Amino acid sequence: MYTLGLNTYHADASAALLLNGEIICATEEERFVRKKHFAGFPKNSIDYCLKYANISINEITAVCVGRDTNAKLGKKLLYTLSNYRNATRLISHRKSNWKNVNSIKALFEVYYGSCPPIKNIEHHRAHLASAFFSSPFKSSTVVSIDGSGDFSTVMIARGNGSVIDVLESQDYPVSVGFLYTAFTQFLGFPHYGDEYKVMGLAPYGEPHYFEKFKQIMWLGKKNILDWDKTFFSFKTGAVSYINDEPRVNELFNKTKFQELFGDFRQPTDGIDKRHKDIACSLQRYTEHLIFGILERAFKLAKSENLCLAGGVAQNSVANGKILANTSFTNLYIPSAGHDAGISMGAAQYHYFNNLRNNRAEALYNANLGIEFSNDEIKSILDEEGLEYTYLEDEKLFPYVAQKISSESVIGFFDGKAEFGPRALGSRSILADPRNSKAQELLNAKIKRRESFRPFAPSILEEYGNEYFEDYQFTPFMERVLTIKSEKRNLIPAVTHVDGTGRLQSVNKELRPRYYSLISAFYELTGIPILINTSFNENEPVVNHPREAISTFLRTNLDTLILGNFLLEKKEL
C-alpha cells in the first residue's frame, strides 16, 4: 500500500512516499528547482518518489496534503469579526494560495492522467505525526511549535500506539515563531528562514534585555501563550507567496519595539553589542517560553517521552537544553522537523491514525533523497571533460583524511541526499576541526556568509561522551550541546564562542561510508570529529553531481569526492 504525502503551496514544498507505513523516500522541491524554501507544487519531488518506487500514480492509494482549510472555521470567523481590517486584508492576500491548494486534483490529472483520493491533514497534526510515528516510543507527549499553520501556532497531544489525541492548541496569531521572526527582522535579517542567523549571533551577547521581553509575550494560564498584540503587525498576515517563494512580511511595530530596544538595524548596518545582546536575550527568552510550553504538555500528556516538531523545533540551541530544563527524560526530533516534514507527517497521520495500521520501525535514517551510482557519476564527469581518479573505499578514505588533515576543504557527495535542512555527510563540505582558521575560511571563501556563523562537529557516536557534557545521541544535528572544557582547544573550529557545538552523532550502521571517513581521520590525528557544513553556496544544498561540480569549480574547495571519484584542483 503506497501513500503519498505532500507539503504544497507552502514554504519548503516536499513529497514523501510510504510503503505499508515505512518511509521509503522523501525530498524537498527546492533541491530540484534551486529556489530556497520553494513554495509551489512539488512535481519534481513527486516524480522522484514514483521513479524510486517504480510505480505509476494509479498505485497510490491516497495523496495526503498537510493542509486543511476547514480546520478551526469557527475560530477563524471570530478572529475575522474581531479583527476585521487585518483579517479581510489577510483573506484577500491568501485567496490566490487557497486557489492553488484547491487545484491539486486538476494538476495530478494534467501531469499524471488521474488523481488518487486526496486526504487533507491539518498542518500541526502532520507535524505531530512526523515526530511521533517516526520515533521509537510506543507512547509519548507530542508537541508542535511553529509560526502558524491552519490557524494554530502550538499543538499539544498524547501519542499512544497508532493514535494521536490532540489535547490543546494555541490559536493564531499568538506565536513563539512570530516573536522570533519579528526580532529577526528588527535585527536586520529580513528574509524567510533567517532566524538561524540570530541563533548563531546570540552567544556573542549577554541577556541584558531578557526582562523587557516579558512585556511582549508570556506563558498563559487559560491559553498556552498570551501577548501584548500592540507590539505586532499582521496587516497582510505573516507570510506572502510570490512566484512560489515565501516572503515574510514585516511583523513588528517599529514604534513599540524602538521604545524598548532602540533603533532597528538595517541589513547593511554593522552589528554592534546592542544587537548581540538583543539576540542573546531573544534566544534565552524563547527557551524560557519553549520550556514552559513543554512543561504544560508534560502535565497534560503525562509521558516522560517527548516528540517535538515544527519550525521552532529547529532551534537546536533550545533542543539541547530540553532534557535538563523540563520533566522529560527522552527526546525525539525528526530530521525534517520544519515544514518540509509536513509531507511525511501527513502521510503518516493518515496511514496510522486514520486507518489504525500498526506502527513502522523508528526512523533514524535521513537518507531518503535522490542517489547517483558510480556509473552515472562517471558518465557526467566524462561529459564535462573533467580529470578524475577512481579509488576504492579502502584507499579513498585514508587519502581524503590526509588531505583534510593538511588543511584541504573537501566537497563530499555520497549516496542518497538527506531529507531535512541539515547536511549529514551525504551532501557536505568537510574540514579539519583542529584548524582555528577554518571557520573564517569556510564563511568567507566557500559559504560566503556572515563571519559569526558556526560550523558543526560530526563525531563518531562512541566518542560522544568523551567530548560532550551530558551527551545525547543526536543523529540529525538537531541539538547543541556543551563541549567539555578540556576538549575545546583540540577542536577550536567547531567550538562556538560559548563552548558549545551543534553536533551530529555518526553511527556506523546508519552512515557507513561517512563513519569510515571520520574513522580514517581519527586514526591519523586522534580526533574522531570532522567539520561538517552543507554543500552549497547561498543556495539550496546540492542535489545532483552537476551542482556539486559547479560549486567545486567556482569556490575555493580544494577537493571534490563524488561517490568513489576524486577531483582535485591543480596547484599553480
Q: What is the mean predicted local confidence, pLDDT?
A: 94
Number of domains: 3
Could you tell me the strand content as a percent range? 15-25%
Cα-atom radius of gyration = 23 Å
In CATH's first tier, which class of the largest domain applies? Alpha Beta
What helical percentage do the residues reach? 25-40%
**What's the helix count?**
20
**Which structural class matches the secondary elements?**
alpha/beta
Distance between the termini: 57 Å
The CATH H-level homologous superfamily of the largest domain: Carbamoyltransferase, C-terminal domain
Please provide a brief summary of the model.
The protein is an alpha/beta fold. It contains 20 helices and 23 strands. Helix 3 runs antiparallel to helix 4 (84-102), helix 6 packs across helix 14 (341-354) and helix 7 (176-186) runs antiparallel to helix 11.
Description:
- The structure is a single chain.
- Helices cover 36% and strands 21% of the residues.
- It is an alpha/beta fold and 572 residues long.
- Strands 15-23-22-16-17-21-18-20-19 form a 9-stranded mixed beta sheet, sandwiched between helices. Strands 3-2-1-4-5 form a 5-stranded mixed beta sheet, sandwiched between helices. Strands 8-7-6-13-14 form a 5-stranded mixed beta sheet, with helices on both faces.
- A hairpin with a 2-residue loop joins strand 22 and strand 23.
- Helix 6 (123-132) crosses helix 14 (341-354) and helix 16 packs across helix 19.
- The radius of gyration is 23 Å and the shape is globular.
- The model has no long low-confidence stretch (mean pLDDT 94).
